[in-house]
Structure prediction request, 195 residues.
Amino acid sequence: MKRVAILISGGGSNMIALARSMEGDHPARPVLVLSNDPAAPGLDRAAALGIPVAAVDHRPFKGDRSAFEAALVKKLDAAAPDVICLAGFMRILTAGFTGRYAGRMLNIHPSLLPKYPGLQTHQRALDAGDAEAGCTVHEVTSVLDDGPILGQARVPILAGDDAESLAARVLVQEHALYPAVLRRYVSGDRTPVLL
Ligand code: GRF
Prediction:
């Protein structure tokens, strides 16, 4: 049975989708949900599912990324995960951290990468007059929102859409895409999932 740790910063809806998918004949189980915000609502939601939770508040580290990440590594390595999923984790990670978990850390990003790495992805797609938007699951490298693509889901951009309505439509796809990619990934299958 593969062990999966999930890193969150906020509500954790992707974390919930992942955790709920890892049941029955699924080859993996969640062993830790870890947040950089002790008040992240997703921590209570994970605990309610019986998943061990922990938090390392990034604020006391006052921008010292290495020290913050050393504390993250301590929590993570104690849970001995085979795979790490970043799910709405909003801290930029150093090359030291991404290198330590190279080839076993995933991230979900709310755009059709390589378009729109970074923030405000939905507004940027609207401003560009795109016909479609979506989300991407990729393997994490030292370059932000980059790395081998393991899955993508597309949605139409509709007349009258704003960033909020588009984000809501994309989030529904995120909750389908991330579990589908994870299931393949923990079985050693890197064939991209396309929804
Ligand atoms: C998602 O849209 C994800 O793609 C982005 O942050 C949002 C987090 O949502 N990185 P949640 O915390 O999983 O609900």
